[in-house]
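Q: My labmate handed me this sequence with no annotations at all. I'd like to see what the chain might look like in three dimensions before we decide whether it's worth expressing. Could you predict it?
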Amino acid sequence: MRFRFCGDLDCPDWVLSEIITMSRLTSIKMKLLCQVVMASLLGHELDYDKAKKLTSDAKFDEPDLQGALAALGFILRSASRYSVDSSSLDSELQQLGLPRELAAALAKSHTDNTASLSKYLSESSLRLSSLKNATCSKESITLPNNEGTLLVNTVKLSYLDSDLTEKEAVFTLSQSQLDSLLKDLKTAKYKMEELSAK
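A: Here is what I predict for the chain of 198 residues:
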């Protein structure tokens, strides 16, 4: 069977097995656990201790808890990625064996946070680094054998790498190369803004 929240593909087997585990939760605990997972999806640190307390009534051991957190993260992230509405998500989760009350709690959590999660995911996806500062200065370089001077632009980029360490890149460009780079960057920015407006 194909499910919209899985991108119109079959649901992964590991998610199916975790749905059986999550069926032991109450609807209130499911709602609260979804809030913990949603906070971590929005860039906050996962509150593992809170999740452990929430699942202690259902007698989750460590693998059960880790699997449930991973499955909830997968479901909420995928439902947001594929723009699944609340009623479809609720229905699909029930088809997979999640009790109605739990499916409704999960779908409500998705609906309440879908706009902020979609925004966060679009801002952070495919991003390996974050630009902090860019400067450009003109310099005159003397050519070998006193053949004259060349005016170049030295570009210095300060950025945070994917591991959040600050790095710097310095390179030189001729005026025509700099003009071409700026034109290409403006075109790319325009196309990205055009796509995000759709």
